[in-house]
Design brief:
By secondary structure, the chain is α/β, with parallel strands linked by helices. The protein has eleven helices and eight strands. It has helices at residues 16-27, 46-52, 80-85, 96-100, 106-118, 131-135, 139-154, 180-195, 199-204, 215-222, 239-250, and strands at 5-9, 36-40, 58-62, 90-93, 122-127, 163-166, 206-209, 229-232. The chain is globular, with a radius of gyration of 17 Å.
Protein backbone atom coordinates (compact mmCIF):
# COMPACT_ATOMS: atom_id res chain seq x y z
CA UNK A 1 0.00 0.00 0.00
CA UNK A 2 1.45 3.34 -1.05
CA UNK A 3 1.63 5.95 1.67
CA UNK A 4 -0.05 9.22 0.63
CA UNK A 5 2.05 12.36 0.33
CA UNK A 6 1.14 16.03 0.23
CA UNK A 7 3.85 18.58 -0.54
CA UNK A 8 3.61 22.36 -0.59
CA UNK A 9 5.64 24.27 -3.19
CA UNK A 10 5.96 27.83 -1.90
CA UNK A 11 7.61 28.98 -5.14
CA UNK A 12 9.05 32.53 -5.03
CA UNK A 13 6.89 33.60 -2.10
CA UNK A 14 7.76 34.62 1.42
CA UNK A 15 9.59 37.17 3.52
CA UNK A 16 11.30 36.41 6.81
CA UNK A 17 8.18 37.59 8.65
CA UNK A 18 5.59 35.85 6.47
CA UNK A 19 7.51 32.56 6.46
CA UNK A 20 7.77 32.69 10.25
CA UNK A 21 4.00 33.20 10.44
CA UNK A 22 3.32 30.36 8.01
CA UNK A 23 5.57 27.93 9.87
CA UNK A 24 3.91 28.87 13.16
CA UNK A 25 0.50 28.26 11.63
CA UNK A 26 1.65 24.90 10.24
CA UNK A 27 2.78 23.90 13.72
CA UNK A 28 -0.80 24.37 14.89
CA UNK A 29 -2.24 22.05 12.25
CA UNK A 30 -3.30 18.50 13.03
CA UNK A 31 -1.87 16.25 10.33
CA UNK A 32 -2.97 12.61 10.01
CA UNK A 33 -0.20 10.17 10.90
CA UNK A 34 -0.69 8.17 7.71
CA UNK A 35 0.33 10.97 5.33
CA UNK A 36 3.84 12.18 4.52
CA UNK A 37 3.92 15.97 4.55
CA UNK A 38 6.61 18.18 2.98
CA UNK A 39 7.15 21.84 2.19
CA UNK A 40 9.44 23.44 -0.39
CA UNK A 41 10.43 26.99 0.65
CA UNK A 42 12.75 29.27 -1.29
CA UNK A 43 16.45 28.50 -0.86
CA UNK A 44 16.78 31.70 1.17
CA UNK A 45 14.46 30.36 3.86
CA UNK A 46 15.45 26.68 3.88
CA UNK A 47 17.63 26.73 6.99
CA UNK A 48 15.07 28.67 9.01
CA UNK A 49 12.20 26.37 8.00
CA UNK A 50 14.24 23.22 8.73
CA UNK A 51 15.02 24.55 12.21
CA UNK A 52 11.42 25.57 12.93
CA UNK A 53 9.92 22.26 11.76
CA UNK A 54 12.55 20.10 13.46
CA UNK A 55 10.09 18.59 15.94
CA UNK A 56 7.17 18.29 13.52
CA UNK A 57 6.37 15.44 11.09
CA UNK A 58 7.02 17.70 8.10
CA UNK A 59 9.95 17.21 5.73
CA UNK A 60 11.64 20.12 4.01
CA UNK A 61 12.68 20.08 0.38
CA UNK A 62 14.32 22.46 -2.08
CA UNK A 63 12.71 23.78 -5.25
CA UNK A 64 15.81 23.24 -7.37
CA UNK A 65 19.39 21.99 -7.27
CA UNK A 66 22.54 22.07 -9.35
CA UNK A 67 23.28 19.29 -11.83
CA UNK A 68 26.55 18.53 -10.01
CA UNK A 69 26.30 16.65 -6.71
CA UNK A 70 29.25 18.22 -4.89
CA UNK A 71 31.13 21.51 -4.65
CA UNK A 72 32.39 23.29 -7.74
CA UNK A 73 32.66 26.49 -9.72
CA UNK A 74 28.96 27.08 -10.40
CA UNK A 75 28.28 30.62 -9.21
CA UNK A 76 24.74 31.09 -7.94
CA UNK A 77 23.92 27.38 -7.82
CA UNK A 78 23.29 25.18 -4.76
CA UNK A 79 24.51 21.60 -4.86
CA UNK A 80 22.42 18.66 -3.67
CA UNK A 81 25.12 17.95 -1.08
CA UNK A 82 24.68 21.46 0.32
CA UNK A 83 20.92 20.93 0.49
CA UNK A 84 21.43 17.73 2.47
CA UNK A 85 23.81 19.60 4.77
CA UNK A 86 21.08 22.21 5.32
CA UNK A 87 18.60 19.51 6.38
CA UNK A 88 16.66 18.94 3.15
CA UNK A 89 15.17 15.54 2.37
CA UNK A 90 13.71 16.15 -1.08
CA UNK A 91 14.14 18.34 -4.15
CA UNK A 92 11.87 19.25 -7.04
CA UNK A 93 13.27 18.36 -10.46
CA UNK A 94 11.73 19.56 -13.71
CA UNK A 95 8.91 21.78 -12.49
CA UNK A 96 7.17 23.23 -15.53
CA UNK A 97 8.32 26.73 -14.61
CA UNK A 98 11.91 25.50 -14.80
CA UNK A 99 11.21 23.73 -18.09
CA UNK A 100 9.12 26.48 -19.71
CA UNK A 101 10.65 29.70 -18.38
CA UNK A 102 14.23 28.68 -17.59
CA UNK A 103 14.51 26.41 -20.62
CA UNK A 104 15.74 23.37 -18.72
CA UNK A 105 15.98 20.35 -21.02
CA UNK A 106 15.25 16.71 -20.28
CA UNK A 107 19.00 16.06 -20.49
CA UNK A 108 19.81 18.65 -17.82
CA UNK A 109 16.99 17.44 -15.58
CA UNK A 110 18.22 13.86 -15.76
CA UNK A 111 21.59 15.10 -14.48
CA UNK A 112 19.87 16.97 -11.64
CA UNK A 113 17.81 13.87 -10.80
CA UNK A 114 20.96 11.71 -10.65
CA UNK A 115 22.92 14.30 -8.65
CA UNK A 116 20.11 14.57 -6.13
CA UNK A 117 19.95 10.81 -5.60
CA UNK A 118 23.74 10.52 -5.39
CA UNK A 119 23.64 13.00 -2.51
CA UNK A 120 20.85 11.26 -0.62
CA UNK A 121 17.95 13.48 -1.66
CA UNK A 122 14.65 12.11 -2.94
CA UNK A 123 13.88 13.77 -6.28
CA UNK A 124 10.30 14.74 -7.04
CA UNK A 125 10.17 14.56 -10.83
CA UNK A 126 7.60 16.97 -12.26
CA UNK A 127 6.11 16.15 -15.65
CA UNK A 128 3.18 17.57 -17.60
CA UNK A 129 1.83 18.98 -20.85
CA UNK A 130 0.85 22.44 -22.03
CA UNK A 131 -2.69 23.34 -23.09
CA UNK A 132 -1.62 23.29 -26.75
CA UNK A 133 -0.21 19.79 -26.34
CA UNK A 134 -3.36 18.57 -24.60
CA UNK A 135 -5.59 20.10 -27.29
CA UNK A 136 -3.45 18.33 -29.91
CA UNK A 137 -3.99 15.00 -28.16
CA UNK A 138 -0.32 14.70 -27.21
CA UNK A 139 -0.65 14.55 -23.41
CA UNK A 140 0.49 10.95 -22.97
CA UNK A 141 3.21 11.33 -25.61
CA UNK A 142 4.71 14.40 -23.91
CA UNK A 143 4.48 12.96 -20.40
CA UNK A 144 5.87 9.65 -21.65
CA UNK A 145 8.89 11.33 -23.23
CA UNK A 146 9.65 13.27 -20.05
CA UNK A 147 9.48 10.05 -18.04
CA UNK A 148 11.46 8.06 -20.59
CA UNK A 149 14.34 10.53 -20.46
CA UNK A 150 15.06 9.36 -16.91
CA UNK A 151 14.36 5.66 -17.50
CA UNK A 152 16.60 5.48 -20.56
CA UNK A 153 19.53 7.18 -18.85
CA UNK A 154 19.28 5.93 -15.25
CA UNK A 155 17.12 2.80 -15.47
CA UNK A 156 13.81 1.94 -13.86
CA UNK A 157 15.56 1.37 -10.53
CA UNK A 158 16.00 5.12 -10.19
CA UNK A 159 12.32 5.34 -9.28
CA UNK A 160 12.66 3.14 -6.20
CA UNK A 161 13.69 6.30 -4.33
CA UNK A 162 11.78 8.99 -6.19
CA UNK A 163 8.36 10.61 -6.42
CA UNK A 164 6.59 11.64 -9.62
CA UNK A 165 4.32 14.67 -9.80
CA UNK A 166 1.99 15.05 -12.77
CA UNK A 167 1.36 18.75 -13.22
CA UNK A 168 -0.57 19.77 -16.34
CA UNK A 169 1.00 23.13 -17.21
CA UNK A 170 -2.39 24.57 -18.13
CA UNK A 171 -3.69 23.94 -14.61
CA UNK A 172 -0.83 25.48 -12.61
CA UNK A 173 -1.80 28.77 -10.99
CA UNK A 174 -4.67 29.25 -13.43
CA UNK A 175 -7.54 28.09 -11.26
CA UNK A 176 -8.20 25.37 -13.84
CA UNK A 177 -7.99 21.81 -12.60
CA UNK A 178 -7.94 18.54 -14.45
CA UNK A 179 -11.02 16.55 -13.57
CA UNK A 180 -10.36 13.56 -11.33
CA UNK A 181 -10.96 11.34 -14.36
CA UNK A 182 -8.52 13.31 -16.56
CA UNK A 183 -5.87 13.22 -13.86
CA UNK A 184 -6.41 9.51 -13.20
CA UNK A 185 -6.06 8.71 -16.91
CA UNK A 186 -2.59 10.26 -17.00
CA UNK A 187 -1.53 8.79 -13.65
CA UNK A 188 -2.61 5.33 -14.80
CA UNK A 189 -0.62 5.77 -18.03
CA UNK A 190 2.46 6.81 -16.06
CA UNK A 191 2.19 3.75 -13.84
CA UNK A 192 1.64 1.50 -16.86
CA UNK A 193 4.73 2.93 -18.52
CA UNK A 194 6.79 2.16 -15.43
CA UNK A 195 5.23 -1.30 -15.17
CA UNK A 196 6.51 -2.20 -18.64
CA UNK A 197 9.98 -1.97 -17.12
CA UNK A 198 9.27 -3.31 -13.62
CA UNK A 199 5.83 -3.91 -12.12
CA UNK A 200 7.10 -3.88 -8.54
CA UNK A 201 8.70 -0.46 -8.95
CA UNK A 202 5.57 0.82 -10.69
CA UNK A 203 3.32 -0.26 -7.84
CA UNK A 204 5.59 1.28 -5.24
CA UNK A 205 6.25 4.74 -6.68
CA UNK A 206 4.03 7.56 -5.49
CA UNK A 207 2.32 9.67 -8.14
CA UNK A 208 1.20 13.12 -7.01
CA UNK A 209 -1.19 15.43 -8.81
CA UNK A 210 -0.44 19.14 -9.00
CA UNK A 211 -2.53 21.82 -10.65
CA UNK A 212 -4.75 24.15 -8.63
CA UNK A 213 -5.49 21.58 -5.91
CA UNK A 214 -7.64 23.05 -3.14
CA UNK A 215 -9.37 21.72 -0.04
CA UNK A 216 -12.63 21.73 -2.03
CA UNK A 217 -11.42 19.33 -4.74
CA UNK A 218 -8.67 17.41 -2.94
CA UNK A 219 -10.76 14.51 -1.64
CA UNK A 220 -12.21 13.69 -5.05
CA UNK A 221 -8.80 13.85 -6.74
CA UNK A 222 -7.09 11.79 -4.04
CA UNK A 223 -9.87 9.20 -4.25
CA UNK A 224 -8.61 8.08 -7.66
CA UNK A 225 -6.71 4.74 -7.54
CA UNK A 226 -3.44 6.02 -9.02
CA UNK A 227 -3.33 9.46 -7.37
CA UNK A 228 -1.28 9.18 -4.18
CA UNK A 229 -1.45 12.79 -3.02
CA UNK A 230 -0.64 16.22 -4.31
CA UNK A 231 2.02 18.80 -5.02
CA UNK A 232 0.28 21.96 -3.90
CA UNK A 233 1.10 25.48 -5.08
CA UNK A 234 -0.81 28.56 -3.98
CA UNK A 235 -3.01 26.72 -1.47
CA UNK A 236 0.11 25.67 0.49
CA UNK A 237 0.71 29.30 1.48
CA UNK A 238 -2.36 29.13 3.72
CA UNK A 239 -1.77 26.72 6.60
CA UNK A 240 -5.48 26.03 7.20
CA UNK A 241 -6.11 25.27 3.52
CA UNK A 242 -2.98 23.14 3.31
CA UNK A 243 -3.93 21.29 6.49
CA UNK A 244 -7.36 20.51 5.06
CA UNK A 245 -5.75 19.11 1.89
CA UNK A 246 -3.43 16.90 3.95
CA UNK A 247 -6.39 15.62 5.96
CA UNK A 248 -8.23 14.86 2.70
CA UNK A 249 -5.28 12.66 1.69
CA UNK A 250 -5.51 10.91 5.05
CA UNK A 251 -9.11 9.96 4.43
Amino acid sequence: MRRPMVAGNWKMHGTCDSVADLVEDLANQVFPSGVDVAVFPTSLHLGFVVECLEDLPVSVGAQNCAHEAGPGALTGEISPAQLVDAGCKLVLVGHSERRQIMGESNELLVRKFAAAQASGLTPVLCIGETLEQRDAGKTLEVVGQQLDSVIEELGIGAFVNAVIAYEPVWAIGTGLTASPQQAQEVHAAIRAQLAKENSEVAQGVRLLYGGSVKAANAAELFGMPDIDGGLIGGASLNADEFGAIVRAAGN
